[in-house]
Amino acid sequence: MFSPALFAAYRSDPWVAGPVHHFAELESTNTWCRRATDPETPHGALCLADHQSAGRGQYQRAWTSAPAENLTFSVVWRPATAERLALLKQVCALAVCDTLTRFDVPGSRIKWPNDVLVDKRKLAGILVECTFLGALPHRVVAGIGLNVNQVGFPEELSHSATSMARESGTTYVREAVLAHLVNALARRYAQWERQDPALRNDIQARLIGCGEWCQIRVDGVMRDEPCKVLGVDHEGHLVVLDDRLRPVTFRHEDVRIDRPAEPLP
Ligand code: BTN
Questions:
Q1: Model confidence over 20-30: pLDDT tens digits?
Q2: Domain annotation covers residue 263
Q3: Which atom of ligand 1 is nearest to 31's Cα?
Q4: What pLDDT was estimated at residue 258?
Q5: Does residue 38 sit within a domain?
Q6: Ligand 1 atom at shortest distance from the alpha carbon of 27
Q7: What is the mean pLDDT of residues 172-194?
Protein backbone atom coordinates (compact mmCIF):
# COMPACT_ATOMS: atom_id res chain seq x y z
CA MET A 1 0.00 0.00 0.00
CA PHE A 2 1.25 3.49 -0.83
CA SER A 3 2.50 5.34 2.25
CA PRO A 4 1.62 9.05 2.41
CA ALA A 5 4.10 9.43 5.31
CA LEU A 6 6.96 8.02 3.24
CA PHE A 7 5.90 10.17 0.32
CA ALA A 8 5.98 13.23 2.60
CA ALA A 9 9.51 12.27 3.68
CA TYR A 10 10.69 12.16 0.05
CA ARG A 11 8.89 15.39 -0.79
CA SER A 12 11.63 17.78 0.17
CA ASP A 13 11.16 20.36 -2.56
CA PRO A 14 9.30 23.34 -1.11
CA TRP A 15 8.00 24.10 -4.60
CA VAL A 16 5.39 21.38 -4.19
CA ALA A 17 2.45 22.28 -2.03
CA GLY A 18 -1.17 21.26 -1.80
CA PRO A 19 -3.15 18.57 -0.02
CA VAL A 20 -2.60 14.88 -0.73
CA HIS A 21 -5.73 12.72 -0.93
CA HIS A 22 -4.83 9.04 -0.78
CA PHE A 23 -7.35 6.23 -1.31
CA ALA A 24 -6.88 2.47 -1.24
CA GLU A 25 -9.55 2.20 -3.91
CA LEU A 26 -11.33 4.76 -6.00
CA GLU A 27 -13.32 4.74 -9.18
CA SER A 28 -10.90 7.13 -10.90
CA THR A 29 -8.62 9.83 -9.53
CA ASN A 30 -9.58 12.13 -12.41
CA THR A 31 -13.26 11.67 -11.66
CA TRP A 32 -12.64 12.33 -7.95
CA CYS A 33 -10.76 15.56 -8.71
CA ARG A 34 -13.47 16.75 -11.07
CA ARG A 35 -16.18 16.17 -8.46
CA ALA A 36 -14.30 17.38 -5.37
CA THR A 37 -15.03 20.69 -3.69
CA ASP A 38 -12.89 23.79 -4.26
CA PRO A 39 -11.25 23.71 -0.77
CA GLU A 40 -10.18 20.09 -1.38
CA THR A 41 -8.64 20.90 -4.73
CA PRO A 42 -6.52 24.05 -4.67
CA HIS A 43 -3.70 24.45 -7.16
CA GLY A 44 -1.24 21.60 -6.55
CA ALA A 45 -3.73 19.19 -4.92
CA LEU A 46 -2.90 15.55 -5.50
CA CYS A 47 -5.20 12.53 -5.50
CA LEU A 48 -3.75 9.02 -5.59
CA ALA A 49 -5.38 5.59 -5.54
CA ASP A 50 -3.69 2.24 -5.05
CA HIS A 51 -6.43 0.76 -7.17
CA GLN A 52 -8.87 2.37 -9.58
CA SER A 53 -12.04 0.38 -10.23
CA ALA A 54 -12.91 2.45 -13.32
CA GLY A 55 -9.72 4.13 -14.46
CA ARG A 56 -10.28 6.18 -17.57
CA GLY A 57 -8.06 6.68 -20.61
CA GLN A 58 -8.29 8.85 -23.69
CA TYR A 59 -11.16 8.37 -26.16
CA GLN A 60 -13.37 6.72 -23.50
CA ARG A 61 -10.99 3.79 -23.17
CA ALA A 62 -10.40 2.09 -19.81
CA TRP A 63 -7.07 2.33 -17.99
CA THR A 64 -6.15 -0.79 -16.09
CA SER A 65 -3.22 -1.07 -13.72
CA ALA A 66 -2.11 -3.80 -11.30
CA PRO A 67 -3.20 -2.66 -7.79
CA ALA A 68 -0.42 -1.20 -5.60
CA GLU A 69 2.33 -1.83 -8.17
CA ASN A 70 2.11 1.34 -10.20
CA LEU A 71 1.16 4.99 -9.80
CA THR A 72 -2.33 6.15 -10.69
CA PHE A 73 -2.87 9.74 -9.63
CA SER A 74 -4.10 13.17 -10.65
CA VAL A 75 -2.89 16.67 -9.89
CA VAL A 76 -5.05 19.79 -9.99
CA TRP A 77 -3.87 23.00 -11.59
CA ARG A 78 -5.63 26.34 -11.55
CA PRO A 79 -4.23 28.27 -14.51
CA ALA A 80 -5.13 31.95 -14.82
CA THR A 81 -5.57 31.74 -18.59
CA ALA A 82 -7.49 29.63 -21.07
CA GLU A 83 -4.64 29.96 -23.55
CA ARG A 84 -2.11 27.25 -24.30
CA LEU A 85 -4.05 24.60 -22.36
CA ALA A 86 -3.36 21.95 -25.01
CA LEU A 87 0.34 22.21 -24.19
CA LEU A 88 -0.33 20.94 -20.65
CA LYS A 89 -0.61 17.38 -21.98
CA GLN A 90 2.95 17.54 -23.20
CA VAL A 91 4.01 19.23 -19.94
CA CYS A 92 2.90 16.03 -18.19
CA ALA A 93 4.54 13.74 -20.73
CA LEU A 94 7.81 15.62 -20.45
CA ALA A 95 7.74 15.52 -16.63
CA VAL A 96 7.31 11.75 -16.86
CA CYS A 97 10.31 11.54 -19.21
CA ASP A 98 12.34 13.71 -16.78
CA THR A 99 11.47 11.28 -14.00
CA LEU A 100 12.35 8.20 -16.03
CA THR A 101 15.76 9.70 -16.82
CA ARG A 102 16.30 10.44 -13.12
CA PHE A 103 15.53 6.80 -12.24
CA ASP A 104 17.85 5.40 -14.93
CA VAL A 105 15.18 4.30 -17.37
CA PRO A 106 16.70 5.52 -20.65
CA GLY A 107 15.14 6.15 -24.04
CA SER A 108 11.72 7.55 -23.14
CA ARG A 109 9.95 9.30 -26.01
CA ILE A 110 6.64 11.11 -26.43
CA LYS A 111 4.17 9.64 -28.91
CA TRP A 112 1.83 12.38 -30.03
CA PRO A 113 -0.14 13.66 -28.28
CA ASN A 114 0.97 12.44 -24.87
CA ASP A 115 1.82 8.78 -24.51
CA VAL A 116 5.21 7.99 -23.04
CA LEU A 117 6.93 5.07 -24.73
CA VAL A 118 10.18 3.24 -24.28
CA ASP A 119 11.22 1.22 -27.29
CA LYS A 120 7.71 1.38 -28.81
CA ARG A 121 6.03 0.14 -25.61
CA LYS A 122 3.78 2.35 -23.53
CA LEU A 123 5.04 3.11 -20.05
CA ALA A 124 2.68 5.91 -19.07
CA GLY A 125 -0.69 7.28 -20.12
CA ILE A 126 -1.95 10.80 -19.51
CA LEU A 127 -5.49 12.16 -19.38
CA VAL A 128 -5.77 15.94 -18.97
CA GLU A 129 -9.29 17.25 -18.43
CA CYS A 130 -10.40 20.82 -17.98
CA THR A 131 -13.55 22.30 -16.48
CA PHE A 132 -14.48 25.92 -17.17
CA LEU A 133 -16.28 28.72 -15.36
CA GLY A 134 -17.43 30.87 -18.24
CA ALA A 135 -14.45 31.42 -20.51
CA LEU A 136 -11.85 30.77 -17.82
CA PRO A 137 -10.54 27.40 -16.73
CA HIS A 138 -11.80 26.40 -13.30
CA ARG A 139 -9.77 23.24 -12.80
CA VAL A 140 -7.30 21.38 -14.92
CA VAL A 141 -7.06 17.75 -13.82
CA ALA A 142 -3.89 16.07 -15.02
CA GLY A 143 -4.20 12.31 -14.55
CA ILE A 144 -1.17 10.09 -14.97
CA GLY A 145 -0.93 6.33 -15.00
CA LEU A 146 2.75 5.37 -14.70
CA ASN A 147 3.72 1.71 -14.82
CA VAL A 148 6.33 1.37 -12.10
CA ASN A 149 6.79 -2.16 -10.73
CA GLN A 150 4.37 -4.23 -12.81
CA VAL A 151 6.30 -6.79 -14.86
CA GLY A 152 3.50 -9.14 -15.91
CA PHE A 153 0.87 -7.70 -18.24
CA PRO A 154 -2.35 -9.24 -19.59
CA GLU A 155 -1.82 -11.12 -22.85
CA GLU A 156 -3.38 -8.35 -24.97
CA LEU A 157 -0.91 -5.78 -23.56
CA SER A 158 2.19 -7.93 -23.29
CA HIS A 159 3.75 -6.59 -26.50
CA SER A 160 2.58 -3.00 -26.21
CA ALA A 161 3.03 -2.13 -22.50
CA THR A 162 6.06 -1.85 -20.29
CA SER A 163 7.08 -0.47 -16.92
CA MET A 164 10.07 1.10 -15.21
CA ALA A 165 10.89 -2.24 -13.58
CA ARG A 166 10.57 -4.15 -16.84
CA GLU A 167 12.94 -1.74 -18.58
CA SER A 168 15.58 -1.51 -15.87
CA GLY A 169 15.27 -4.73 -13.86
CA THR A 170 14.96 -2.63 -10.69
CA THR A 171 12.08 -2.50 -8.21
CA TYR A 172 11.24 1.08 -7.27
CA VAL A 173 9.94 2.80 -4.16
CA ARG A 174 6.75 4.30 -5.57
CA GLU A 175 6.73 7.12 -3.02
CA ALA A 176 10.19 8.24 -4.20
CA VAL A 177 9.16 8.08 -7.85
CA LEU A 178 6.01 10.11 -7.16
CA ALA A 179 7.93 12.69 -5.13
CA HIS A 180 10.27 13.25 -8.04
CA LEU A 181 7.44 13.26 -10.57
CA VAL A 182 5.35 15.89 -8.75
CA ASN A 183 8.44 18.08 -8.51
CA ALA A 184 9.10 17.62 -12.23
CA LEU A 185 5.45 18.49 -12.93
CA ALA A 186 5.75 21.66 -10.83
CA ARG A 187 8.95 22.72 -12.62
CA ARG A 188 7.57 22.06 -16.09
CA TYR A 189 4.28 23.78 -15.18
CA ALA A 190 6.25 26.85 -14.05
CA GLN A 191 7.98 26.86 -17.46
CA TRP A 192 4.56 26.67 -19.10
CA GLU A 193 3.32 29.61 -17.01
CA ARG A 194 6.22 31.86 -17.93
CA GLN A 195 6.21 30.67 -21.56
CA ASP A 196 9.79 29.51 -21.37
CA PRO A 197 10.89 28.51 -24.92
CA ALA A 198 13.04 25.74 -23.44
CA LEU A 199 9.85 23.84 -22.64
CA ARG A 200 8.85 23.38 -26.28
CA ASN A 201 12.42 22.58 -27.26
CA ASP A 202 12.55 19.83 -24.67
CA ILE A 203 9.17 18.45 -25.79
CA GLN A 204 10.26 18.41 -29.41
CA ALA A 205 13.52 16.67 -28.57
CA ARG A 206 11.45 13.80 -27.13
CA LEU A 207 8.67 13.78 -29.73
CA ILE A 208 8.69 10.69 -31.94
CA GLY A 209 8.90 11.67 -35.61
CA CYS A 210 9.86 15.30 -35.00
CA GLY A 211 11.95 16.54 -37.94
CA GLU A 212 11.06 13.47 -40.00
CA TRP A 213 8.71 12.69 -42.85
CA CYS A 214 5.89 10.66 -41.33
CA GLN A 215 2.51 9.24 -42.19
CA ILE A 216 -0.21 10.86 -40.14
CA ARG A 217 -3.69 9.66 -39.26
CA VAL A 218 -6.49 12.13 -38.62
CA ASP A 219 -9.61 10.73 -36.94
CA GLY A 220 -8.29 7.25 -37.63
CA VAL A 221 -7.86 7.83 -41.36
CA MET A 222 -4.36 7.57 -42.75
CA ARG A 223 -3.44 10.50 -45.02
CA ASP A 224 -2.13 9.47 -48.43
CA GLU A 225 0.66 12.02 -48.51
CA PRO A 226 3.46 12.10 -45.95
CA CYS A 227 4.12 15.17 -43.79
CA LYS A 228 7.26 16.47 -42.20
CA VAL A 229 6.66 16.95 -38.48
CA LEU A 230 8.00 20.38 -37.49
CA GLY A 231 6.98 20.31 -33.83
CA VAL A 232 4.61 21.89 -31.35
CA ASP A 233 3.45 25.51 -31.53
CA HIS A 234 3.10 27.74 -28.46
CA GLU A 235 -0.56 26.66 -28.06
CA GLY A 236 0.38 22.99 -27.98
CA HIS A 237 -0.81 22.16 -31.48
CA LEU A 238 1.03 19.97 -33.93
CA VAL A 239 2.70 21.74 -36.86
CA VAL A 240 3.71 19.84 -39.99
CA LEU A 241 4.83 20.60 -43.54
CA ASP A 242 2.62 18.97 -46.15
CA ASP A 243 4.00 17.29 -49.25
CA ARG A 244 4.05 20.68 -51.03
CA LEU A 245 6.03 22.15 -48.15
CA ARG A 246 3.13 24.24 -46.83
CA PRO A 247 2.89 24.53 -43.04
CA VAL A 248 -0.27 23.01 -41.59
CA THR A 249 -1.38 23.26 -37.94
CA PHE A 250 -3.56 20.54 -36.46
CA ARG A 251 -5.74 21.89 -33.69
CA HIS A 252 -7.70 18.69 -33.68
CA GLU A 253 -7.21 16.17 -30.89
CA ASP A 254 -7.19 12.95 -32.82
CA VAL A 255 -4.01 13.21 -34.86
CA ARG A 256 -1.56 10.33 -34.78
CA ILE A 257 1.95 10.34 -36.09
CA ASP A 258 2.62 6.96 -37.62
CA ARG A 259 5.74 5.29 -38.82
CA PRO A 260 8.28 7.49 -40.59
CA ALA A 261 7.61 7.58 -44.32
CA GLU A 262 10.12 7.41 -47.13
CA PRO A 263 11.65 10.87 -47.68
CA LEU A 264 10.19 12.79 -50.60
CA PRO A 265 12.18 12.49 -53.84
C1 BTN B 1 -4.42 6.93 -21.83
O2 BTN B 1 -3.32 6.49 -22.13
O3 BTN B 1 -5.42 6.69 -22.52
C4 BTN B 1 -4.56 7.80 -20.61
C5 BTN B 1 -4.55 7.02 -19.36
C6 BTN B 1 -4.64 7.88 -18.12
C7 BTN B 1 -4.75 7.05 -16.86
C8 BTN B 1 -4.68 7.88 -15.61
S9 BTN B 1 -4.52 6.86 -14.18
C10 BTN B 1 -4.84 8.23 -13.15
C11 BTN B 1 -5.92 9.05 -13.81
N12 BTN B 1 -7.23 8.56 -13.45
C13 BTN B 1 -7.87 8.05 -14.49
O14 BTN B 1 -9.00 7.55 -14.44
N15 BTN B 1 -7.13 8.15 -15.58
C16 BTN B 1 -5.86 8.78 -15.32
A1: 999 999 999 99
A2: no
A3: 14
A4: 85
A5: yes
A6: 14
A7: 96
